[in-house]
Amino acid sequence: MSRTILITGGAGFIGSHVVRRFVTKYPDFLIVNADKLTYAGNLENITDIEQNKNYRFERTDIVNKQDVINLFGKYSFDGVIHLAAESHVDRSITGPDEFVFTNIVGTLNLLNAARNSWKDNYSGKLFYHISTDEVYGSLGSEGYFTEETAYDPRSPYSASKASSDHMVRAFHHTFGLPVVISNCSNNYGPNQFPEKLIPLIINNIKNNKPLPVYGKGENIRDWLYVEDHASAIDLIFHRGRHGDTYNIGGNNEWKNIDLILLLCSIMDRKLKRPAGSSEKLITYVKDRPGHDMRYAIDSSKLQKELGWSPIPDFSAGLEKTVDWYLANTRWLERIISGEYEKYYEMMYSGR
Ligand code: NAD
Ligand code: DAU
Q1: Active-site residue among 86, 134, 165, 195?
Q2: Do residues 210 and 281 make contact, with C-beta atoms less than 8 angstroms apart?
């Protein structure tokens, strides 16, 4: 194997797409997927590649310093692509502590281990930290987040991600660790845990359950197909300038309510229900506390410098996503039993 790459959080939504891409595209790289398998981690997401010769899975809790030291002792990593995180804003509001442990302490443990194992000889090494556009705060109706936008995180989730970004940069400036960071907008696609808006709405329409719209449904998100994020990560990992940040976005802004209406019409057609039937399930509920109004990413640096572009057609990506959830009922049903039911009850009853 020419290089050994650690991917953290590879059993989660985005991580599973990144692992698949790297394992299949780079057969001469050994890809080590380290994941704790929290509620959001699911090895079923990557059963298609688990037998590949260049793939290993390590059950690792990045918050556990010794676990991380052992992992770096077992393999000689050339690169780290760090995706493991607590990722759901609503959960960070009901319980911020886990976000501090995983997103801040976990990242620090990985940075320390990389630095110690590379022993200040950084030739051919890279620590790539995957972050979010939420670190930049909330926009009004105008403007975009650029790489120069000042950080202004407003939820415990975004505050923990901002903190980890700062720590990654601090290791670059203080110790010379070769790092790169990317900040991406909202992802959608197959394998996303159904606590997030798009899979939650698809699942609820399928089961004729109310579609909870926070506030007036006027908040805006910039949606990107998950495989486009994986292709950007691939490019940045190989060609990104060390010490730099790259914004990744879909240039695809949608008001929540308009996106939900679009999903309703796609689902009516796919489920052969009369037009307009899913719309009747829309229920306006209490807003998310501190709900950021608008995210919109300017990804021109990535497009100009590295030649990246997302697939242009959102409706095709959404159709593909709906088809995947309708075809993978066993995947979905296993997730929405047990723990998920308790979470759903806690989050949405009386809202
Ligand atoms: P996810 O919640 O689907 O997956 C997270 C993964 O991390 C899971 O497999 C989980 O088991 C693992 N994990 C959690 N705690 C861990 C720990 N202590 N040790 C080891 N593994 C642990 O998340 P996602 O949506 O795939 O997001 C992945 C990354 O991308 C995160 O860093 C997130 O902040 C970032 N991001 C996500 C989006 C998005 O729209 N989902 C957008 C931009 C950036
Ligand atoms: O912008 C990138 C971020 O996008 C990532 O860093 C996060 O990990 C990811 O979870 C996502 O955060 P959001 O809070 O934007 O995603 P979520 O799917 O939770 O919500 C999208 C929008 O939909 C948001 O405005 C809240 C609203 N919403 C969400 C849910 C779950 C509802 O109206 N109803 C809901 O039931």
Answers
A1: 134
A2: yes
